[in-house]
Design goal:
The protein has 407 residues and is α/β, with parallel strands linked by helices. It folds into 2 domains: 9-208 and 337-402, Crotonobetainyl-coa:carnitine coa-transferase, domain 1 (Rossmann fold); 246-323, no CATH class. The protein is built from 17 helices and 11 strands. It has helices at 18-27, 62-67, 81-92, 113-119, 139-145, 148-151, 167-190, 200-210, 213-220, 254-264, 267-277, 284-289, 291-303, 307-317, 327-333, 382-388, 394-402; strands at 9-13, 32-37, 72-75, 100-103, 124-129, 194-199, 235-240, 246-251, 321-323, 344-349, 353-358. Helix 1 crosses helix 7 (167-190) and helix 7 crosses helix 8. The radius of gyration is 26 Å and the shape is elongated.
Length: 407
Amino acid sequence: MYAILEGLRIVEASAFVAAPTGGLTLAQLGADVIRVDPIGGGVDARRWPLARSALAESGASIYWASLNKCKRSLTVNLRAPEGRELVAELVARPGEGGGCFLTNLPARGELTYDSLAARRRDVVMVQITGHRDGATALDYTVNSAVGFPMVTGPARRDAPVNHVFPAWDVITGLTAATGILAATRRRRDTGEGEHITLALSDVGYATVGHLGHIGEAIVNGTERAPIGNDLYGAFGRDFATKDGRRVMIAAITARQWKSLLDAIGGHEAMRHVEAMLGVDLSDEGQRFEARDLIAPIVARWVGVRGYDEVHAAFDDAGVCWGPYRSFLEMVREDPRCSTGNPLFEDVDQPGIGRFMMPGSPLEFRRHAREAVRPAPTLGQHTDEILAGVLGLSGAKIGELRDRGIVA
């Protein structure tokens, strides 16, 4: 059975999160993704977290291995024109599924779109930048500028609060993968290539706009205030159980609200709140406005029960809720985050050891999920790619290696 993207080849010259996420997304659907790194590894080759077990190689990057699984690795001296020439030839190699280049590195010389298109007119290139004007940006600097740290954290605080999830990098990577698929579909129909530029900050601005924050700022002219762990516009908050665990409860829809009240026996108490405030708690916005009277009722019920009792009662009633867990607690406690879920496989990663890795979360009815393959060691497939894709002889490859062009 063919993989969904079998026959599609992507050359990825990248670092950090955004572009590698785009390549990983395509690789896990069956594309042949060739990651190009400088000899010895790029700036992200040893990024934390590092493997620190007794069985792991000193300093092996779990981060790098996790983002680059299912790919092949080619190491080239990209500072040398001959090294860039090899990568350009790899991108432009004839063949229906090739001619795709994904990068978030500065494109120079042989690796600019115009140079690649001169070799192969239907080349598809996705070039990720920080800002569209060429200024440098990272996820952290984009996030600081698009509003979210100003509404994150408790209401009483004197500084913005960053979140640690690199959302803009991840969304940019997924958008880049979408761009490649869109361009190759059009190429199939028209024979034309495409140069796609994708600015990290534009992904941030677009997402903020899609979620209504730009419209709110322009139309209402108001600032969104930080509200701690409350859910904006509906009822949701974290609560502590008797034994010190914390749970997040959300009631956005009418059904979720009814399920919560069924679980805690709260219908009568909420009717008193409605009468006191003159509100209709079947409306999610009015539940948000009444949250400081609703929350103590829920807190009293949760606070006199242990976590296991709360867990059972909420699941029986169909409440929308979730426990707070650390990463380690998630791995140890959550049956969904285990090899019992077909998303995951135990994989032997060279230099690190055996640990659970996820595949693509997309589940196709007519195509089996692609097996999770470990990340390559740096340069693992250099000879294989140079010989198998570019058709270079062993003598030529040896010469390139001796001259420090490949490794």
